[in-house]
Specification:
This protein is mainly α and 145 residues long. 54% of the residues lie in helices and 0% in strands. It is globular and about 45 Å long. The relative contact order is 0.15.
């Protein structure tokens, strides 16, 4: 059974507009470069969502419709920043602690670098980097945007 992975919250054109990088060229040539790009973006999106769900109980799919346009925009920026980070530095979450030639990063060091700082800042702006996420946070109770 073939699965086609598509990102839900951003796409390759938005990535290119924001970063200036064409992912079909960056990820290399193959028979179907758009499928490869979509799969990469969907994987980044899924890993960020899983990280937020497992560390912060932030279920993006559940809260997304309650988010303001401002929050949605910064969530999109967070995904783009994380995808750019993975392209530039490799995917730390699957490299078993290898970074900058160092092997066996401690668990704390590895957790600190799995999600890049620029993505963390964007996630803070959209209230997803928060251990107290609730529906009220997305209904405007805490947001003035």
């Amino acid at each position: 059974m073939d699965y086609e992975f598509k990102p839900k919250y951003y796409n390759a054109d938005e990535f290119k507009t924001y970063t200036g990088i064409d992912l079909s060229l960056e990820l290399g040539d193959d028979d179907n470069p758009s499928n490869k790009v979509d799969s990469f973006l969907a994987r980044v999106e899924n890993r960020v969502k899983v990280y937020l769900a497992s560390h912060f109980n932030s279920d993006v799919d559940r809260f997304y419709e309650l988010m303001s346009d401002y929050q949605k925009l910064h969530f999109k920026y967070a995904l783009i920043e994380q995808a750019l980070y993975i392209i530039k530095n490799g995917d730390i979450s699957v490299l078993s602690g290898v970074q900058n030639g160092r092997v066996s990063l401690s668990r704390n060091e590895q957790q600190r670098v799995i999600i890049c700082e620029n993505a963390v800042n964007e996630l803070r702006l959209c209230n997803l980097w928060n251990r107290n996420v609730s529906k009220e946070a997305f209904r405007g109770r805490y947001w003035w945007y």
